[in-house]
Amino acid sequence: MIECKNITKIYYSGDSKTAAVENASFTIRDGEFVAITGPSGSGKSTLMHILGCLDKSTKGEYILDGKNISDLSDDELAAIRREKIGFVFQSSNLLPRATVLRNVELPLVYAGVPRTEREKAARGALRHAAFSEKFLNHRSNELSGGMMQRVAIARALVNSPSLILADEPTGNLDTKTGEAVINTFKELHEKQGRTIVLITHEPYVAEKAERIIHIKDGKIIL
């Protein structure tokens, strides 16, 4: 699924340069649930942006589903994000006045999928995200934090991506609610074989994953 070969990301400011990620090499198998963890400023979010095709590495190769994407154009990267990757962020980024169903359907609206197919896919994704049907027509601003994250997970699932990237998805939640959300990821992995990469600085969250990749000062710690 994922192969990173000596990934390096350098930021320049005047005559100075900072390596946010340095010579990172690792693989993630298809269907694996992996946590990438490290302290604040360790480079994990930078790495997530590269894995999610939101940014490019300065050096090295990133191979996703057998395709080297290191030198693709912005339009090609956008197509990969749309077709292959589902994102879940710390903030759910839902439209506050839109219903749950509408929020989950949005990626399919942009893809030009007919309305009947969109609704069917959205309902299925919400079931997989363990979201109760009785709240489907509620607006997102009427939901609790944990429910909003389940909607965000469903939105990430709705176009059947090969990879789900979750960046600090429990960061705004209390411990109990955070554990419920992480258990949703575990079920998606165990029951559906989803490939999930979870970015977190919380040890108890990372321990829920099948494998942990540690990063510190931009370097992978083995």
Total of DSSP H or I helical runs spanning 4+ residues: 7
The largest sheet is: 6 strands, mixed
Q: Kindly provide the name of the CATH class.
A: Alpha Beta
Distance between the termini: 20 Å
Helices and strands: which structural class?
alpha/beta
Question: What's the CATH topology name?
Answer: Rossmann fold
Task: Provide a descriptive summary of the structure in words.
- By secondary structure, this protein is an alpha/beta fold.
- It has a six-stranded mixed sheet with strand order 6-7-8-3-9-10, sandwiched between helices. A four-stranded antiparallel sheet has the order 2-1-4-5, covered by helices on one side.
- A hairpin with a 2-residue loop joins strand 1 and strand 2 (16-28).
- Helix 3 (100-110) packs across helix 4 (115-128), helix 3 runs parallel beside helix 5 (145-157) and helix 5 packs parallel to helix 6.
- It has a single domain (32-42, 74-221), classed as Rossmann fold (3-Layer(aba) Sandwich).
- The protein contains seven helices and ten strands.
- It is 36% helix and 27% strand.
- 40% of the residues are buried.
